[in-house]
Predict the 3D structure of the following.
Amino acid sequence: MEDTEIITLLINERSENALLRIKDNPRYKEICKRQDKSNAIVERLYDTHFNDQEKNIIVEHYEGELDKRVIETDDAYLQGLTDCFKFLKFLELSK
């Protein structure tokens, strides 16, 4: 298994654990509830105000935004891991 595959597995496992933790977070639950309520309205507006070409442009834009957020989150997680290991090494060397 390559390093990138191991890192991907590690990130996916940590992401799953994080999702399990946040499912009981009151703020997260409230945001989900608001999103559920507004979803039908947004879908109706989307369907009635845009033609197919405009819909595709919107979808591609937000898929790109999501891809960016995933990359940013993964990179922030990796940076956190790197910092953690450097700190642990520092503590070991300072004994």
